[in-house]
Amino acid sequence: MSKYLISFPSAAMQVPDHELAEVGRDVHAVIEEAKAAGVYVFAGGIDESMPPVLVAADGTITLGGYPWAPMLNGGFTVLELATRDEAIAWAARIAKACHCQQELRVFGLDSRT
């Protein structure tokens, strides 16, 4: 079993205001299906009202993320699945519910965990 990250940046979700309630309902339904199937690990979104900080090894804090990296925002779902094909199928369900494409990645986990 592998853990898969299914995600989208905030800018990808171009949903008219009058459809937001439907999208929220549909997304929560897919998440409940993932929980019922026993594949759900966690889901959520980046709180964009809290700016990121960089924390150095000595504990020094710098406001903002890496200046050279794209902004990290949007929604994330992590599912534990047996195959990439299963992950693609779940990503498609989430994409349909969210009304936007989803990026799919597999985690390379520490073998000691």
From TrEMBL:
Highest taxon in the source lineage: Bacteria
InterPro entries assigned to the protein according to its UniProt record, in alphabetical order: Dimeric_a/b-barrel (IPR011008)
Name of the protein this chain belongs to: Transcription initiation protein
